[in-house]
Every structure is written in C-alpha cells, then in structure tokens.
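hiii, so i know i said id send this last week but things got crazy w the move. better late than never?? heres the sequnce for the chain we talked about at the cafe, plus the structure i predicted for it. fair warning i was half asleep when i ran it
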Amino acid sequence: MEKENEAPAEEQVADVTDAPAAAKLLSADEIVSEIKPLSSNGFLAFFQKIWRAWLGVWYNFSEKHPKLSKLLYQIVFFIVFSEGVTIWQFLVMTFLPHAFAGLASVEFVWPAVNLGDLTYTLDGVTKPLQFAIFNEPAQLLADGTYNVNAGLGNFIAFEIAVFTAQIINFPLQRNITFKSKGNPYWQAMWYFIGWVLVSVFTNATWGIIAPFVRDLWAWPAAGWNLLKTVITGGLSMLVFFFIFLIIFPDANKVAKSARGKADMAKATNESEEKIAKLELKAVRKEEAAKLFNGRSERYQAVSVANSRAVAFEAIVRNTEKMKAEAKTDEEKAKAEAMEARISEYQERATVAIEAKRKAVAAYDKIVADVKAAREARGEDTSKVA
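okay and structure toks below
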C-alpha cells in the first residue's frame, strides 16, 4: 500500500532544526512504520495526504501558539457552521413562504412607526413608509393575489427558517467548535434566550432597511430576501460568537467552576449533604477535564508524529532521487545538502514518535484511573474512553 507523500520534505513540516535532542534515534524503518497507511482508493488517498500534511503544519503551530491557535480554530469553525446555516435559511425562505400563502393577506406590522412623510405606491395605492420590528405588511398584486413573500405567512416562514437553522447550529458549535462539556440543558436554555433577544435586535435592524429595499425601491423578492438573510444572519453570527464564549466553556473551565463551588461550600460551612453533592460533582467534572485534555494531547501527538514520519520518509526518498539524477556538480551539491539534513528530520521524527507514545500511555492511564475511581463509587464506566 502506498506511503505518503509526494510533496517535498521541506513542505511537510516546519522548523526541523529546533527539535530537542532525542536519547536514541529511531531507525529509518522504525520511523516509516509509524506512518498511517493511506486508503487503497486513489481519490481518497489524495485528500488524506493533504489533510495529514495540514494537520502536521497546524499542530506545529499549535505547539508554539496554543492560545492563538485555539482562538483561530474557534473562529474558523464558527464562521463555517454559521455560514452553512445561513445558506440553509436562504434555501428555506426560497420555498417555505409558498406553504403559508393563505396567510399572505394578513398584515403583521409592530410597532408601526411612520418614517416621516415618506410614502410608497404599490399598484396605485399610496401607503406610508413604516419602521417596525416585525414588519411584514400584506402586498396585493395587480392580478388580485397577495405576494407570498410578505404578510404573516412570510414572517412565520422566516422564523421557522431561523429556528431550524439554530437547531442545526447548536450541536455543531457546542460539540465541534467550542468542544464544551457543560450542562447541555442549561446551555440550550441560554442559547434559546440569546436567540430570542438577538432575533428581536436583528429584526429591528431589518425593520429600518426593509421599508426602503422592499417597499420604496421595490427590489425583486429574491434580492431583498438574500439581503435580509445576510444582514440578519451576519449580525446574529457576530453577537452569537461572544454569547457562545460564555455559554460554551471548555471542560477545564467547567471543572474549575465546579471545584470553586465545592470549596466555597466548605468555607461557608454548608450542610454535609450539600458539600458531598458539590464535591462529587467537582470530582466528576475534573475527571471529564482530564479525559478531555488527555484525548486532545493524544490526538495532537499522533498527528504530529505521523506528519514528521512522513517528512522524514519524503526527504529520504527525494534525496535518493536527486542523487540518482544528479549529473552536474551543482546538482550533486544540492543532493548532498539535502542528504545532510536527513539526520535533522530523523531526530525530529524520533522526538515526535516518542512524544506520541508517552501521550498514548498517559491517556490510557487517565482512562484506567477514571474507570477505577468510578467503579469505586459504583458508577457506570461504559462511556469512559
């Protein structure tokens, strides 16, 4: 089965010269044996190569800038998921208003505040231009039917689109972007409260824009629906990022908070029952944090070791190729220069592989310790892994 990777070794891993010294270098065969085999499917193997090379670069960066890398990770995934559900909203709003066509004749405007003396004319009828947080006036068309992209039906369709988008967004942001281990029911409650408040705010913002683009300037429905989605979705995304930072704490913050409550209960001489309850909760959260940290460190160490093993294999292969093809003195000198760097890559790979082995062993010990502690308390250990 094919090993990785056709890219030059220099592109596989950064900063090979700053590796800490290894006690004993692993042999070339030992290093290459650490490389995860690629899929036998050429198409999948191609993307596996790209993904693994990227993981190596990313985790090298994470080692040097842990706080910055965490923030960048959260921002990128937050934007990807938020834009994804924004597209979902737009697709839903393209079709769902037709399902509520029977409510298109019902106006839903609150509070109706005239924008000075501005008016607009629709099918010969002049109406005042109005601001409203919920601004869905009915629009009678020339053919005697009502515009399905207006009225109460359109409002209901939009709220359904937004609500379903949040149902999709919540687990993605909680479990992947912020990797939170907090109480999901508490988080869902505050997420819902935040969504309601943000919806009122974004609707109010759209209430200022809508009278102009929809009524006064009479944009096509597809155009102002897209603008509405972008504006309300963009504002929601910006506000929600900071809300998520509060309601989606990571496992370490959850454990620290639980420990603080237990210690406070002891300091204020609460009842033994309450102290015992809070202490047990703190211990469980601390165990969860240890598992989370160990799992993350193991995954990072495995990815870095694989990347550096690939880099070593690549530089050896490329060196052999350059030496075999070298004809001029310049080409031979380049081959010799690359060959001189093999030991650096070998040391770097050895250090990474040793770190991986330690991380795997450390995580296995954490799992064993947590299982033993929970068994001693008579708790279920089936999900400890």
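btw Confidence is low (pLDDT under 50) at residues 1-19. thought thatd interest u
miss u guys!!
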